[in-house]
Write a structure and sequence with these properties.
about 100 residues; 2 domains
């Protein structure tokens, strides 16, 4: 999986490095090309991953701890069959199967 970074933060790091190095005009031009390249990298749409937990609601249902959605669920010997909430998308791969 690729790391997602903040483009502005990356450019700030490059710019502060340029400032601290006291570069010649040729050296500054090199770093300006790096900054230009950072701007050219395509962006991706992302969102924060929400971690949730299943809360026991009934013998065959659980409730999402994030959005309160009631979900009929299957249990296998290894635990809960769903590792995310189909309503809000919260990841349910944390410590417990349900509470």
């Amino acid at each position: 999986m690729s790391d997602l970074i903040n483009r502005r933060d990356a450019i700030d790091v490059v710019n502060s490095t340029v400032e601290s190095l006291k570069l010649s005009d040729k050296g500054r031009a090199f770093f300006e090309k790096i900054v230009s390249g950072i701007y050219d990298i395509p962006s991706v749409r992302s969102r924060a991953i929400v971690q949730g937990e299943w809360l026991r609601a009934d013998y065959d249902k659980v409730r999402c701890g994030e959005c309160e959605a009631l979900v009929r669920i299957e249990f296998h010997s290894s635990g809960c069959a769903r590792n995310f909430c189909p309503n809000c998308g919260a990841q349910m791969d944390g410590g417990g199967m349900y509470i």
